[in-house]
Amino acid sequence: MCLNGFTQEEKKDKQFEIHTIAFYNLENLFDTVNDTTKFDERSPIMEMKADREGVYAKKVHNMARVIADIGSDVTGNSPAIIGVCEVENREVLVDVVNDPLLVGRDYGIIHYHSPDARGIDVALLYQKKLFKPISHSSHEVKIFDDRTRKRKQTRDQLLVSGELDGDLIHVIVNHWPSRSGGEARSRPKRVAAAKVSKRVVDSLQSINPYAKIFIMGDLNDDPTNDSVKKILKAERNKNKVGLKGIYNPYENMFKKSGFGTTAWRDAWSLFDQIMFTQPLLEKEDYSSFRFYKAGIYNKVYLTNKRGRWKGYPLRSFSDGGFTNGFSDHFPVYVYVIREPKG
To answer: How many CA atoms within 13 Å lie on the side-chain side of 301?
Structure first.
């Protein structure tokens, strides 16, 4: 596939393999079974009085539709890898990947149960023909109530290492603590989560400084907040990213008015991000995968069409009912490319 963004000389007779790597907050993807070990009865679907099974089937299909579409207009395929959050358990993801829109892609699932009080987890979906997991692990985030200092349970972080078409990559999937109680009061919780991600990155880079690492998730922070800028030290300028540095393509998007992945009280936030380490920026050698482009998947069908929330993400649940929408977050994605082997 020929790609835009290269000089005429670079594009001349040059073909590339291309894959999509994505992240999506699936907004309360819960099943209809009351799990007495967690507060899933507070989920929107469990609060509904009728037709839970019908709503669940529609919700699953809508999630599959979005996943099937992300990147398909460029790659002709759904994402090779997609991190997800706000899922209750592995079983709901089994239903998503077995939807008729995705079953032919043969997605595998990597999932751990987190101690989160709401019962929501993160996970990774991958096309088995494209990505071969080598190892995976769950990493605990310790946070505390700012008043009582009692431990609060939150989502663990997921690390998956494996080969994308033969190239070794590492993916960290996150869902950092919310802004409940206000941004300032809750800020230390997200700083704590960022420190966990940074430790994971540091540990991988201590083994291989050239490790290709993706840090993705719903961070509940924008690209300019302390968790991202001061803890992860993510850069907006590619030229300032050192060997062990992290590049965040979403910071420049955030600085453009009206760009975001979720909205609240007439203001956009760009909480959903995909960052990655410097080796993915190298342009001299495309024999292995390199970063090509990043984006927010905000197609028209994912947005409200009218009223006060026009243009906002068309969420699944609102005012105690099911909207037949999708999520209160837009997905994000990056394309990676390389020259064909052989």
So the answer is: 8
